[in-house]
Amino acid sequence: MIMYSFELSAHRRGFKVVAGVDEAGRGPLAGPVVAAAVVLPTGYKNGEIRDSKQLSHQKRERLYEIIMGDALSIGLGVVEPPVIDAINILQATLVAMKEAVLDLSLTIDYLLIDGINSIDVPIPQQTIIRGDFLSISVASASIIAKVSRDRIMEIYHRQFPQYNFLKNKGYGTKEHREAIKQYRCCKIHRRSFKGIKE
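-> structure tokens emitted (198 positions)
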């Protein structure tokens, strides 16, 4: 029941259109940060939906398709490495979240946001620590953001196969760090990040 409590509380307070917001890709050394905003039907339930980090790749892909089919609206925001380097990863994440909300096709009454930082939009909102674990809307957004980012990194893998982004998705694995030492950085590396800027 707890996965639906934040949505239920918002609806009981009179908010009609509630969107969950989450991001993927704050930690990697390469690639964009991607955020998603998801509006589910009122009372929507799916016991399999949870924080994307707790799901296998195959299950994330399957739930991605289910959410894409069931959601009333989905928005995406993508912020690339040069912007991350210019404004820092926290600010870039908030920009991506704002873009995702503005990308929604519906007029939103209320936002449920993973984490502790609100978004600069004139919409009532609630931040939720571990929101992707506690809210079905936020968990759905985490799945959409994660799968969307993974697919972007798979495209980059074809452009820069020497870093094996297909396997590490830009995270600072030993293999990825060794490839950076050997081949230096490519255009999608975050040059302000520890492990890159040195």
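The radius of gyration is 17 Å.
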